[in-house]
Every structure is written in structure tokens, then in C-alpha cells.
Amino acid sequence: MEQKIIYTNLVIEAIDDLVASLNAPNVFLLVDVNTAQFVLPILKQSETVQNAQIITVPSGDVNKTINALQQIWKELSNNGASRKSVIINVGGGVITDIGGFAAATFKRGIRFINLPTTLLGAVDAAVGGKTGINFNGLKNEIGAFAEAEAVIISTLFFNTLPEQQLLSGYAEMLKHGLLDDKQTFADLMKYDITQQPVALDALLHLIEKSVQVKQNIVSSDPFETGYRKALNLGHTIGHAFESFAMNDRKSPIPHGYAVAWGLVVELVLSHMKLNFPAETLHQFAQYVKNHYGYFDITCKDYPKLLELMGHDKKNATADAINFTLLSDIGDIHINQTCTPDEIKSALDIYRDLIA
User: 312 Cβ partners below 8 Å, 6+ apart?
Assistant: First the structure.
């Protein structure tokens, strides 16, 4: 059954109607310190939110940890959460990831609703049933598949987001465009996500299309045994960049920026191995250069990046690095194994294209 997604800017009514339909004895609201400050005051108009127990955790991906997870479990336990309770996860991808995992594991599973307040959360983490935390220096190393009862997607909060966060989310939308078709990709390349104020109605339409691309893939393979690996496009390299920046450079980068750079490298691999069109590759690389800049690496960094890629959960072994590649927009090839030399060559070309 396809996950219930509500596209609306009438968020208060959506929350109250949803929770009433679930007949929950008590409701918990998970926020981080940022959403507690900027979003919670808006949601206080909701009767559900007024009566909810608020759980606040630190913000940022560096806090998507076992310590924060334990804090959530403890507050659920201390405040009488049962298997009939509901958690509403209000925030970006960190909150929906860790809140979903807390719900999936507390008393072997309680219900939850996702209300993403970032563009990245709306088009990626909040939808599709993946939950988890970072562990041992690796992204999303511990987690579970657990779908929210519903996801409320709204652009209501997006005009308060800094440009960097909007661009971070837009990278995932560009990925969905590459997976879908040439018209979707062209529409995304034409829309100006950096305009102020954000054109919210047009963006909500693009988000709905983007989420539908992801839903279609997820519904065909909910537990990632096959075709869902299509959504890994850009992420094998992207997650390596992200982990490298966080652990080796102690300078975290936004997830979507890592994905944008990872997409460039993996489109290079797609061109090398599957003859992905050079013109589209150059067009996309120029777009990334103009909007996301450049993640500065040298050949001295390659061994560590390859080591990090070896940890990717989709690999059969640490030595066989698995990619999703494209022979054209919408022409998807999962389980493409690349050699270390091929990956190094692609990283060289990435540096030439956008440095």
C-alpha cells in the first residue's frame, strides 16, 4: 500500500484531523532546538500540539547519534508512551530519521507522523520508510525500515530557510529528475530555487512530482532488495564525501551538497561505462558548479574515499563497490560495480569539470 502523503499548507487542520483519526491516548512531538524556536510557535494553534508532550534534541547531523536516541526513548518511557501513542516528528531529515527509528524500536514499534520543515526532509528523508542514526563515523549505519502513518508536506516553512538548505533539498529533487524523464529534469533545471521569496506554489507542484518519483520506486521494492537501489544515484560517492568531511576534515557539509557533487562523479562513471550523454553531463556539471561550488579533494584523498565507499550498505563485499548508473535520463542500471581505478578516473574528471 502506498504511503499516505498529504500536500497542504493548512498544516494545523491536517495535524488535528490525522491525530483524531488515530485515536491515540497521548501524543509526543519531537523537535530540535531550531524547530522548537521557529516552527513550534506556529504549530501551537493546533489543539493536538497544545496537548502534546514536547521532546527537544540538539540540531544537526552530528547529533543523529545513539545518545540522542536514548534521550528520546527515555522521555517516551518516563512520560507513559504506549504502543498506541503517536510521535509527530517535526523538522528536517535528522529529526524524521531519528524520530522514525525511535518510534520503530520503542516497545517494538509505535505510530509516527512526519512533518518535514526542510526541503531536503520533504523530498527525501521523511518519505519512504528509512529511519536510522549515524554510528562509528558512518552515515545511517544503524536503522530500520518503518513507514510513517502519514507525511504532511507543506511549503509553509520554506521561506524562512537559508539558501543553503533550499539548495541541499533541491539536489535530491534533481536526482529524482535524472531518474524520471527528460521533461521532469528540464523543469527542475529551469526553476530558480534561489529566488526570494520562494515561489511556494510552483515549488509545491515540483515537490509533489519529485516525491511521486520516489514513491513509485519505493512501492516496487520497499525493503531495497533490488530496484529501490535506483535511489542510491549520487549517494555512494556523496556519502563518502559527507563522511570524509565530517570525520577527517572535522568540517561537515550539507547532505544535498554532497549528493550534488556525488551525482557529477556518478554521471561521469555513467558516461564511462554506459555512454551517458556527454552534453547532459556537462550541462549538469555546470549547474552544480554554479549553485553548489566545489568539494575540494586531491588524489591523496582517494584511498580514504574508496575506503568509505567500501562501507556502503549496498555493496555485496567491501571490495565490490556498487553504484546505480544511467545510460540516459530515466534509463536506470542498478548493481553496477566499478573498480578503484575507474572511480579514481571519475574523481579526476569531476575535479576538471567543476574545480
Answer: 236, 239, 240, 321, 322
Angle of CA points 109, 115, 117, to nearest 5°: 135
Q: Cα separation of 229 and 92, whole Å?
A: 23
Measured CA to CA, the distance from residue 109 to residue 154 in angstroms comes to: 26
Distances (CA, A) of 76 to 60, 81, 114, 147: 21, 5, 17, 19
Cell matching residue 114: 512526519
Q: Taking all residues of the chain, what is their mean pLDDT, rounded to a whole number?
A: 94
Q: Take residue 219 and report the three cell numbers written for it.
A: 512501492
Q: Which of 107, 72, 83 is nearest to 24 (CA)?
A: 83
Q: Which strand (E) or helix (H) includes residue 6?
A: strand 5-7
**pLDDT tens, residue by residue, 31-52:** 999 999 999 999 999 999 999 9
Would you tell me how many other CB atoms lie within 10 Å of the CB of residue 318? Answer: 12
Q: What is the pLDDT of residue 235?
A: 96
239/236 Cα distance (integer angstroms):
6
pLDDT score at 313: 64
187 close to 149: Cβ distance less than 8 angstroms: no
Do residues 173 and 188 touch, judged by C-beta distance below 8 A?
Answer: yes
60-119 per-position pLDDT tens digit: 989 999 999 999 999 999 999 999 999 999 999 999 999 999 999 999 999 999 999 999
Burial of 337 by CB count in 10 Å (0-12 exposed, 13-18 middle, 19+ buried)?
Answer: middle
* C-alpha cell, 121: 526532509
pLDDT of residue 1: 60
Average pLDDT over every residue of 309-314: 78
Cβ neighbours of 159 (radius 10 Å): 11
Helix axes 340-354, 302-309, angle to 10 degrees: 120
Host H or E run for residue 56: strand 53-57
